[in-house]
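One thing: could you explain this record?
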Amino acid sequence: MFLALPFVSFTADWNHTWPFSPDLEKTEQEAEALTRVLLTMPDFASLLINLLIIAAAPAIAEEFFFRGVMQRLFIEMRPKVPWLAIVITAACFSAIHMQWMDFIPRLLLGFLLGAIYYLSGNLWLSIAGHFLNNGLQVVMVYLYQIKVLKSDPMDAGTTEWYLAVGSLAMTIVVAWQLYQRTPPAERNFPQHRTDFTDNIESIGK
C-alpha cells in the first residue's frame, strides 16, 4: 500500500484534468472543505479519535463488505476470471464514495486491496492496508497542523511520472512476493474461508 501511493497520486493528478461540470467541481470542493473541518485536530486526543473514525472503522466495515462479501460473491459467480471480479468490486467501492474527481485513484486502491485479499487469502491484510492508507493521511494532516510538516498534505503538488513508474514496478514486485510467500492452501479461493469471516458467521448463528 505504501509503495503504491506515488502511482495512485499520479493517477489522481490525471483524474483531476477530466472535463467535469462546474456543479460537480463545486460539490467536490465542498466535500474537501468538509473533510478539512473533520480533520481539524487541536490535540493528540483528537488525532486518536480521527484515527478511529476515519481510519479504523471504515477499514474494517468497508473491507468486510467489499472484499469479504462482494468480491467473494463475484468470484464465486465467475471463478475462472477472479481478476475481473476484483476490478468490478473496486469500481463499486470507488463509485459508492461519490467523488468522481478521485474515482480512478480510489479504484486503484480498491483493486490493490482486493488483490491483497485474493493473493493472501487473509482479509486482515486488506484491512491493515486500508487502515494504513487512511491513517497515514490523518497523521500527515496532524503533523502539518502542529507545524512538523511544512507543506499541507491535502494540497500536495503533482507527482512526477518517473516516481509513478517506479512506484508501480515496486508494487508489482512486492505483490508477487506476497503471492509467492503465501502457502497455496491459504489462497484456495473462494473455497478457503478466512478466520475473520468464519468468526463473523459464527456470531450470526
User: Anything to note?
Assistant: Helices lie at 5-15, 22-38, 44-77, 82-95, 103-120, 123-145, 161-181, 195-204. DSSP finds eight helices and no strands in the chain. The radius of gyration is 18 Å. Residues 121 and 188 are 7 Å apart (CA to CA).
